[in-house]
Amino acid sequence: MTQQQSAPGPHDTTTAEAEAVTLTSELIRIDTTNTGDPATVVGERAAAEYVAEKLAEVGYETTYVESGAKGRGNVFARLAGADPARGALLIHGHLDAVPADASEWSVHPFSGAVQDDYVWGRGAVDMKDMVAMTLATARRFKRDNVVPPRDLIFAFLADEEAGGDYGSQWLVRNRPELFEGATEAISEVGGFSITVRDGVRAYMIETAEKGIAWMRLRVRGRAGHGSMVHEDNAVTKLTQAVAKLGTHKFPLVLTDSVREFLAAITELTGLRFDEDDLDGSVAKLGAVARMVGATLRDTANPTMLNAGYKANVIPSLAEAVVDCRVLPGRQEAFERELDEILGPDVEREWVTSLPPVETTFDGALVDAMTASIVAEDPGATTLPYMLSGGTDAKAFHTMGIRCFGFAPLRLPADLDFSALFHGVDERVPVDALKFGTRVLDRFLRTC
Ligand SMILES: [Zn+2]
User: 161 CA distance to ligand 1 centroid (A)?
Assistant: First the structure.
Protein backbone atom coordinates (compact mmCIF):
# COMPACT_ATOMS: atom_id res chain seq x y z
CA MET A 1 0.00 0.00 0.00
CA THR A 2 2.71 2.42 1.03
CA GLN A 3 4.38 1.73 -2.26
CA GLN A 4 1.24 2.71 -4.15
CA GLN A 5 0.87 5.93 -2.17
CA SER A 6 4.44 7.03 -2.83
CA ALA A 7 4.34 6.06 -6.51
CA PRO A 8 3.53 8.85 -8.99
CA GLY A 9 -0.17 9.20 -9.86
CA PRO A 10 -1.43 7.16 -12.80
CA HIS A 11 -1.24 10.08 -15.18
CA ASP A 12 1.88 11.80 -13.89
CA THR A 13 4.02 11.07 -16.91
CA THR A 14 6.57 13.85 -16.38
CA THR A 15 9.56 11.50 -16.39
CA ALA A 16 8.39 9.47 -19.37
CA GLU A 17 7.65 12.65 -21.36
CA ALA A 18 11.15 13.99 -20.77
CA GLU A 19 12.62 10.59 -21.62
CA ALA A 20 10.71 10.44 -24.91
CA VAL A 21 12.42 13.66 -26.01
CA THR A 22 15.90 12.49 -24.98
CA LEU A 23 15.41 9.03 -26.49
CA THR A 24 14.22 10.49 -29.82
CA SER A 25 17.32 12.66 -29.97
CA GLU A 26 19.68 9.82 -29.02
CA LEU A 27 18.09 7.41 -31.49
CA ILE A 28 18.51 9.96 -34.29
CA ARG A 29 22.22 10.20 -33.40
CA ILE A 30 22.58 6.50 -34.20
CA ASP A 31 22.77 6.61 -38.01
CA THR A 32 20.55 3.75 -39.22
CA THR A 33 20.53 4.61 -42.91
CA ASN A 34 18.84 1.99 -45.04
CA THR A 35 19.61 2.52 -48.71
CA GLY A 36 17.86 -0.67 -49.77
CA ASP A 37 21.23 -2.24 -50.65
CA PRO A 38 21.96 -4.67 -47.78
CA ALA A 39 25.72 -4.15 -48.25
CA THR A 40 25.51 -0.48 -47.25
CA VAL A 41 23.02 -0.59 -44.37
CA VAL A 42 24.50 0.74 -41.13
CA GLY A 43 23.57 1.12 -37.50
CA GLU A 44 20.56 -1.16 -37.08
CA ARG A 45 22.50 -3.39 -34.71
CA ALA A 46 23.73 -0.41 -32.66
CA ALA A 47 20.20 0.98 -32.44
CA ALA A 48 18.78 -2.40 -31.44
CA GLU A 49 21.44 -2.78 -28.74
CA TYR A 50 20.70 0.71 -27.48
CA VAL A 51 16.98 -0.13 -27.22
CA ALA A 52 17.71 -3.49 -25.55
CA GLU A 53 19.90 -1.75 -22.98
CA LYS A 54 17.18 0.80 -22.18
CA LEU A 55 14.68 -2.03 -21.66
CA ALA A 56 17.05 -4.22 -19.63
CA GLU A 57 17.95 -1.29 -17.39
CA VAL A 58 14.42 -1.25 -15.95
CA GLY A 59 14.11 -5.04 -15.71
CA TYR A 60 12.81 -6.31 -19.05
CA GLU A 61 14.02 -9.58 -20.45
CA THR A 62 14.87 -8.83 -24.08
CA THR A 63 15.36 -11.00 -27.15
CA TYR A 64 17.80 -9.85 -29.84
CA VAL A 65 17.32 -11.37 -33.30
CA GLU A 66 19.16 -10.72 -36.56
CA SER A 67 16.75 -11.07 -39.43
CA GLY A 68 18.33 -12.80 -42.38
CA ALA A 69 21.72 -11.08 -42.39
CA LYS A 70 24.45 -9.93 -40.04
CA GLY A 71 23.74 -6.65 -38.30
CA ARG A 72 20.02 -6.54 -39.13
CA GLY A 73 19.10 -6.17 -35.45
CA ASN A 74 15.62 -6.50 -33.95
CA VAL A 75 14.66 -6.40 -30.27
CA PHE A 76 11.65 -7.89 -28.52
CA ALA A 77 10.26 -7.59 -24.99
CA ARG A 78 6.97 -8.64 -23.40
CA LEU A 79 5.00 -7.21 -20.52
CA ALA A 80 2.48 -9.60 -18.98
CA GLY A 81 -1.09 -8.31 -18.75
CA ALA A 82 -3.88 -8.89 -16.24
CA ASP A 83 -5.81 -11.22 -18.53
CA PRO A 84 -3.57 -13.75 -20.26
CA ALA A 85 -6.62 -15.20 -22.02
CA ARG A 86 -6.93 -12.05 -24.13
CA GLY A 87 -4.83 -11.73 -27.25
CA ALA A 88 -1.68 -9.64 -26.97
CA LEU A 89 -1.25 -6.15 -28.40
CA LEU A 90 1.83 -5.73 -30.58
CA ILE A 91 3.48 -2.32 -30.48
CA HIS A 92 6.02 -2.27 -33.30
CA GLY A 93 8.41 0.35 -34.59
CA HIS A 94 11.23 0.32 -37.11
CA LEU A 95 14.74 1.45 -36.24
CA ASP A 96 16.02 2.13 -39.76
CA ALA A 97 15.59 5.39 -41.66
CA VAL A 98 16.00 6.55 -45.27
CA PRO A 99 19.25 8.26 -46.34
CA ALA A 100 19.77 11.99 -45.77
CA ASP A 101 22.10 14.37 -47.63
CA ALA A 102 23.57 16.63 -44.92
CA SER A 103 24.35 19.43 -47.42
CA GLU A 104 20.62 20.04 -47.92
CA TRP A 105 19.73 20.32 -44.22
CA SER A 106 19.73 23.31 -41.83
CA VAL A 107 21.03 21.05 -39.03
CA HIS A 108 23.05 17.84 -39.41
CA PRO A 109 20.52 15.03 -40.07
CA PHE A 110 22.15 12.81 -37.42
CA SER A 111 22.58 15.53 -34.79
CA GLY A 112 19.29 14.91 -32.97
CA ALA A 113 19.43 18.62 -32.15
CA VAL A 114 16.77 19.86 -29.75
CA GLN A 115 16.17 23.46 -30.78
CA ASP A 116 13.28 25.85 -31.47
CA ASP A 117 10.93 23.40 -29.68
CA TYR A 118 11.63 20.60 -32.17
CA VAL A 119 13.83 17.49 -32.22
CA TRP A 120 15.61 17.54 -35.57
CA GLY A 121 17.02 14.78 -37.70
CA ARG A 122 16.44 11.83 -40.01
CA GLY A 123 13.85 9.56 -38.43
CA ALA A 124 12.27 12.30 -36.27
CA VAL A 125 8.80 11.42 -37.58
CA ASP A 126 9.63 8.18 -39.40
CA MET A 127 9.74 6.74 -36.85
CA LYS A 128 12.21 7.25 -34.04
CA ASP A 129 9.60 9.47 -32.39
CA MET A 130 7.21 6.56 -31.87
CA VAL A 131 10.05 4.20 -30.96
CA ALA A 132 11.08 6.68 -28.25
CA MET A 133 7.53 7.23 -26.96
CA THR A 134 7.00 3.45 -26.83
CA LEU A 135 10.31 2.92 -25.07
CA ALA A 136 9.64 5.69 -22.55
CA THR A 137 6.19 4.25 -21.78
CA ALA A 138 7.49 0.68 -21.55
CA ARG A 139 10.15 1.86 -19.09
CA ARG A 140 7.61 3.75 -17.05
CA PHE A 141 5.26 0.75 -16.83
CA LYS A 142 8.07 -1.49 -15.62
CA ARG A 143 9.41 1.02 -13.09
CA ASP A 144 5.92 1.63 -11.65
CA ASN A 145 4.80 -2.01 -11.84
CA VAL A 146 1.90 -1.11 -14.12
CA VAL A 147 -0.04 -4.21 -15.20
CA PRO A 148 -1.72 -3.55 -18.56
CA PRO A 149 -5.09 -5.21 -19.22
CA ARG A 150 -3.55 -7.64 -21.71
CA ASP A 151 -0.07 -8.79 -22.74
CA LEU A 152 2.00 -6.20 -24.58
CA ILE A 153 4.64 -7.21 -27.11
CA PHE A 154 7.20 -4.50 -27.84
CA ALA A 155 9.02 -5.02 -31.14
CA PHE A 156 11.76 -2.78 -32.55
CA LEU A 157 12.56 -3.78 -36.09
CA ALA A 158 15.07 -3.55 -38.93
CA ASP A 159 14.57 -2.87 -42.63
CA GLU A 160 11.11 -1.33 -42.85
CA GLU A 161 12.30 1.26 -45.34
CA ALA A 162 13.27 -1.38 -47.89
CA GLY A 163 10.15 -3.52 -47.52
CA GLY A 164 11.10 -5.68 -44.52
CA ASP A 165 12.82 -8.59 -46.30
CA TYR A 166 15.51 -8.23 -43.60
CA GLY A 167 13.00 -7.28 -40.92
CA SER A 168 9.27 -7.85 -40.44
CA GLN A 169 8.76 -10.09 -43.49
CA TRP A 170 11.69 -12.32 -42.49
CA LEU A 171 10.58 -12.45 -38.84
CA VAL A 172 7.01 -13.41 -39.73
CA ARG A 173 8.31 -16.25 -41.93
CA ASN A 174 11.14 -17.46 -39.72
CA ARG A 175 10.36 -16.50 -36.13
CA PRO A 176 6.54 -16.41 -35.85
CA GLU A 177 6.74 -17.48 -32.17
CA LEU A 178 7.98 -13.99 -31.32
CA PHE A 179 4.47 -12.67 -32.10
CA GLU A 180 2.61 -15.54 -30.45
CA GLY A 181 -0.83 -14.58 -29.19
CA ALA A 182 -0.86 -11.16 -30.87
CA THR A 183 -4.29 -10.25 -32.23
CA GLU A 184 -3.94 -6.50 -32.78
CA ALA A 185 -1.10 -4.09 -33.46
CA ILE A 186 -0.28 -0.40 -33.51
CA SER A 187 2.57 1.42 -35.21
CA GLU A 188 3.44 4.37 -37.45
CA VAL A 189 1.71 6.84 -39.81
CA GLY A 190 -1.47 7.38 -37.86
CA GLY A 191 -2.66 9.09 -34.71
CA PHE A 192 -1.40 12.52 -35.82
CA SER A 193 -3.70 15.53 -35.80
CA ILE A 194 -5.04 17.75 -38.54
CA THR A 195 -6.71 21.01 -37.59
CA VAL A 196 -10.20 21.02 -39.06
CA ARG A 197 -11.47 24.30 -37.56
CA ASP A 198 -9.97 26.92 -35.26
CA GLY A 199 -8.44 24.89 -32.45
CA VAL A 200 -10.45 21.76 -33.29
CA ARG A 201 -8.39 18.75 -34.22
CA ALA A 202 -9.12 15.38 -35.79
CA TYR A 203 -6.64 12.54 -35.35
CA MET A 204 -6.16 10.34 -38.40
CA ILE A 205 -5.91 6.66 -37.48
CA GLU A 206 -4.61 4.39 -40.21
CA THR A 207 -6.94 1.45 -40.87
CA ALA A 208 -5.82 0.56 -44.38
CA GLU A 209 -2.83 0.59 -46.73
CA LYS A 210 -2.71 0.31 -50.48
CA GLY A 211 -0.87 -2.66 -51.92
CA ILE A 212 2.67 -2.20 -53.22
CA ALA A 213 3.33 -3.71 -56.64
CA TRP A 214 6.63 -2.86 -58.30
CA MET A 215 6.62 -3.91 -61.90
CA ARG A 216 9.39 -4.42 -64.47
CA LEU A 217 8.49 -3.79 -68.10
CA ARG A 218 10.48 -5.23 -70.97
CA VAL A 219 10.30 -4.60 -74.66
CA ARG A 220 12.37 -6.63 -77.10
CA GLY A 221 13.11 -5.32 -80.57
CA ARG A 222 15.59 -5.78 -83.36
CA ALA A 223 19.13 -4.46 -82.78
CA GLY A 224 20.51 -2.26 -85.53
CA HIS A 225 22.52 0.76 -86.67
CA GLY A 226 21.26 4.13 -85.41
CA SER A 227 21.78 5.72 -88.83
CA MET A 228 19.23 3.59 -90.67
CA VAL A 229 15.47 3.39 -91.00
CA HIS A 230 14.35 1.09 -88.19
CA GLU A 231 10.75 0.01 -87.53
CA ASP A 232 11.34 -2.22 -84.53
CA ASN A 233 13.01 0.02 -81.95
CA ALA A 234 12.66 -1.33 -78.38
CA VAL A 235 13.37 2.11 -76.83
CA THR A 236 10.62 3.81 -78.85
CA LYS A 237 8.08 1.11 -78.05
CA LEU A 238 8.90 0.99 -74.36
CA THR A 239 8.85 4.75 -73.84
CA GLN A 240 5.51 5.05 -75.64
CA ALA A 241 4.02 2.46 -73.30
CA VAL A 242 5.61 4.05 -70.23
CA ALA A 243 4.34 7.52 -71.16
CA LYS A 244 0.85 6.17 -71.72
CA LEU A 245 0.83 4.37 -68.38
CA GLY A 246 2.35 7.30 -66.47
CA THR A 247 -0.40 9.67 -67.60
CA HIS A 248 -3.25 7.17 -67.33
CA LYS A 249 -5.90 7.90 -64.72
CA PHE A 250 -7.23 4.74 -63.13
CA PRO A 251 -10.92 4.79 -62.16
CA LEU A 252 -12.15 6.37 -58.99
CA VAL A 253 -12.90 3.71 -56.37
CA LEU A 254 -14.13 4.66 -52.92
CA THR A 255 -13.08 1.98 -50.44
CA ASP A 256 -14.71 1.84 -47.00
CA SER A 257 -11.84 3.59 -45.20
CA VAL A 258 -11.75 6.47 -47.67
CA ARG A 259 -15.53 6.82 -47.71
CA GLU A 260 -15.62 6.93 -43.90
CA PHE A 261 -12.79 9.47 -43.83
CA LEU A 262 -14.55 11.80 -46.27
CA ALA A 263 -17.87 11.46 -44.43
CA ALA A 264 -16.17 12.33 -41.13
CA ILE A 265 -14.53 15.40 -42.69
CA THR A 266 -17.89 16.54 -44.09
CA GLU A 267 -19.45 16.18 -40.66
CA LEU A 268 -16.64 18.20 -39.04
CA THR A 269 -16.22 20.94 -41.61
CA GLY A 270 -19.27 20.98 -43.85
CA LEU A 271 -16.90 20.47 -46.78
CA ARG A 272 -18.71 18.34 -49.37
CA PHE A 273 -17.03 15.80 -51.60
CA ASP A 274 -18.78 15.80 -54.93
CA GLU A 275 -18.21 12.46 -56.66
CA ASP A 276 -18.11 14.23 -60.03
CA ASP A 277 -15.11 16.25 -58.91
CA LEU A 278 -13.58 14.28 -56.08
CA ASP A 279 -10.01 15.30 -56.95
CA GLY A 280 -11.04 18.96 -56.85
CA SER A 281 -12.80 18.71 -53.50
CA VAL A 282 -10.04 16.60 -51.93
CA ALA A 283 -7.51 19.26 -53.02
CA LYS A 284 -9.25 21.65 -50.60
CA LEU A 285 -8.05 19.52 -47.68
CA GLY A 286 -4.70 21.32 -47.67
CA ALA A 287 -1.55 19.44 -46.67
CA VAL A 288 -3.23 16.04 -46.29
CA ALA A 289 -4.65 16.23 -49.84
CA ARG A 290 -1.43 14.58 -51.09
CA MET A 291 -2.03 11.54 -48.86
CA VAL A 292 -5.79 11.28 -49.36
CA GLY A 293 -5.72 12.01 -53.10
CA ALA A 294 -3.50 8.98 -53.66
CA THR A 295 -6.08 6.69 -52.04
CA LEU A 296 -8.92 7.53 -54.44
CA ARG A 297 -7.60 5.32 -57.22
CA ASP A 298 -4.80 2.93 -58.18
CA THR A 299 -1.62 4.64 -59.33
CA ALA A 300 1.26 3.61 -61.60
CA ASN A 301 4.30 5.88 -61.51
CA PRO A 302 7.24 5.04 -63.80
CA THR A 303 10.44 5.37 -61.74
CA MET A 304 13.33 3.72 -63.65
CA LEU A 305 14.41 3.38 -67.29
CA ASN A 306 17.21 1.30 -68.70
CA ALA A 307 18.25 0.74 -72.31
CA GLY A 308 21.15 0.98 -74.69
CA TYR A 309 24.91 1.38 -74.36
CA LYS A 310 26.03 3.49 -77.32
CA ALA A 311 24.57 6.48 -79.21
CA ASN A 312 24.56 4.80 -82.63
CA VAL A 313 23.40 1.32 -81.59
CA ILE A 314 19.68 0.54 -81.40
CA PRO A 315 19.46 -1.95 -78.51
CA SER A 316 17.40 -5.11 -78.69
CA LEU A 317 16.07 -4.65 -75.15
CA ALA A 318 14.60 -1.76 -73.17
CA GLU A 319 13.40 -1.95 -69.58
CA ALA A 320 11.46 0.20 -67.13
CA VAL A 321 10.31 -0.10 -63.54
CA VAL A 322 6.91 1.20 -62.47
CA ASP A 323 5.78 1.75 -58.87
CA CYS A 324 2.16 0.62 -58.77
CA ARG A 325 -0.05 1.13 -55.70
CA VAL A 326 -3.27 -0.83 -55.76
CA LEU A 327 -6.43 -0.36 -53.70
CA PRO A 328 -7.90 -3.24 -51.66
CA GLY A 329 -9.94 -5.54 -53.92
CA ARG A 330 -8.60 -4.04 -57.16
CA GLN A 331 -5.64 -6.28 -58.12
CA GLU A 332 -7.39 -8.27 -60.87
CA ALA A 333 -9.13 -5.30 -62.43
CA PHE A 334 -5.90 -3.34 -62.19
CA GLU A 335 -3.96 -6.00 -64.08
CA ARG A 336 -6.60 -6.19 -66.81
CA GLU A 337 -6.37 -2.43 -67.24
CA LEU A 338 -2.56 -2.59 -67.30
CA ASP A 339 -2.57 -5.12 -70.12
CA GLU A 340 -4.94 -2.97 -72.15
CA ILE A 341 -2.71 0.08 -71.76
CA LEU A 342 0.61 -1.67 -72.36
CA GLY A 343 -0.45 -3.74 -75.36
CA PRO A 344 0.97 -7.06 -76.58
CA ASP A 345 4.60 -5.95 -77.18
CA VAL A 346 5.35 -5.14 -73.55
CA GLU A 347 6.21 -7.95 -71.13
CA ARG A 348 5.53 -7.26 -67.48
CA GLU A 349 6.58 -8.99 -64.24
CA TRP A 350 6.14 -8.14 -60.55
CA VAL A 351 9.44 -7.55 -58.77
CA THR A 352 7.80 -6.78 -55.42
CA SER A 353 4.24 -7.50 -54.51
CA LEU A 354 2.80 -6.76 -51.07
CA PRO A 355 -0.99 -6.97 -50.88
CA PRO A 356 -3.15 -4.18 -49.44
CA VAL A 357 -4.26 -4.14 -45.82
CA GLU A 358 -7.65 -3.06 -44.52
CA THR A 359 -9.49 -3.32 -41.22
CA THR A 360 -12.61 -1.69 -39.83
CA PHE A 361 -12.70 1.38 -37.63
CA ASP A 362 -14.61 -0.09 -34.71
CA GLY A 363 -14.31 -2.21 -31.59
CA ALA A 364 -12.82 -1.83 -28.13
CA LEU A 365 -9.30 -1.00 -29.30
CA VAL A 366 -10.50 1.86 -31.49
CA ASP A 367 -12.62 3.12 -28.58
CA ALA A 368 -9.54 3.05 -26.34
CA MET A 369 -7.55 5.05 -28.92
CA THR A 370 -10.28 7.67 -29.18
CA ALA A 371 -10.79 7.91 -25.41
CA SER A 372 -7.07 8.36 -24.73
CA ILE A 373 -6.83 11.10 -27.40
CA VAL A 374 -9.92 12.93 -26.13
CA ALA A 375 -8.67 12.76 -22.53
CA GLU A 376 -5.58 14.73 -23.60
CA ASP A 377 -7.22 16.91 -26.27
CA PRO A 378 -10.85 17.57 -25.24
CA GLY A 379 -13.06 18.37 -28.21
CA ALA A 380 -10.94 16.33 -30.60
CA THR A 381 -12.22 13.47 -32.75
CA THR A 382 -10.63 10.49 -34.44
CA LEU A 383 -11.24 9.27 -37.96
CA PRO A 384 -10.01 6.37 -40.09
CA TYR A 385 -7.91 6.80 -43.21
CA MET A 386 -6.02 4.77 -45.78
CA LEU A 387 -2.25 5.18 -46.22
CA SER A 388 -1.12 5.26 -49.83
CA GLY A 389 2.28 3.88 -48.80
CA GLY A 390 3.20 0.72 -46.94
CA THR A 391 4.54 -0.20 -43.50
CA ASP A 392 5.49 -3.31 -41.53
CA ALA A 393 1.74 -3.77 -40.99
CA LYS A 394 1.79 -5.59 -44.35
CA ALA A 395 3.78 -8.42 -42.76
CA PHE A 396 1.75 -8.65 -39.56
CA HIS A 397 -1.54 -8.53 -41.45
CA THR A 398 -0.58 -11.87 -43.04
CA MET A 399 -0.54 -13.41 -39.53
CA GLY A 400 -4.16 -12.37 -39.04
CA ILE A 401 -3.22 -9.44 -36.79
CA ARG A 402 -5.48 -6.36 -37.02
CA CYS A 403 -3.14 -3.48 -37.74
CA PHE A 404 -3.57 0.22 -37.01
CA GLY A 405 -1.40 3.28 -37.50
CA PHE A 406 -1.50 4.94 -34.09
CA ALA A 407 1.56 6.99 -33.17
CA PRO A 408 -0.20 9.87 -31.43
CA LEU A 409 1.08 13.41 -32.10
CA ARG A 410 -0.72 16.71 -31.55
CA LEU A 411 0.65 18.93 -34.31
CA PRO A 412 0.62 22.67 -34.92
CA ALA A 413 -2.07 23.67 -37.45
CA ASP A 414 0.44 25.09 -39.94
CA LEU A 415 2.93 22.18 -39.95
CA ASP A 416 3.09 20.32 -43.30
CA PHE A 417 3.51 16.97 -41.57
CA SER A 418 3.37 14.63 -44.56
CA ALA A 419 6.19 16.59 -46.26
CA LEU A 420 8.51 15.73 -43.35
CA PHE A 421 8.44 11.99 -44.14
CA HIS A 422 11.71 11.24 -45.96
CA GLY A 423 12.02 15.03 -46.34
CA VAL A 424 14.76 17.59 -45.72
CA ASP A 425 14.75 19.07 -42.17
CA GLU A 426 12.64 16.24 -40.82
CA ARG A 427 11.71 17.21 -37.26
CA VAL A 428 9.10 16.58 -34.58
CA PRO A 429 7.68 19.10 -32.10
CA VAL A 430 8.84 18.49 -28.51
CA ASP A 431 5.28 19.24 -27.39
CA ALA A 432 3.92 16.54 -29.74
CA LEU A 433 6.29 13.93 -28.28
CA LYS A 434 5.15 14.77 -24.76
CA PHE A 435 1.50 14.70 -25.81
CA GLY A 436 2.00 11.35 -27.57
CA THR A 437 3.64 9.85 -24.50
CA ARG A 438 0.68 10.87 -22.34
CA VAL A 439 -1.79 9.41 -24.83
CA LEU A 440 0.19 6.18 -25.18
CA ASP A 441 0.32 5.83 -21.40
CA ARG A 442 -3.46 6.09 -21.15
CA PHE A 443 -4.04 3.89 -24.17
CA LEU A 444 -1.80 1.03 -23.04
CA ARG A 445 -3.53 1.00 -19.63
CA THR A 446 -6.93 0.59 -21.28
CA CYS A 447 -6.16 -1.45 -24.40
ZN1 LIG B 1 8.31 4.49 -41.35
Answer: 6
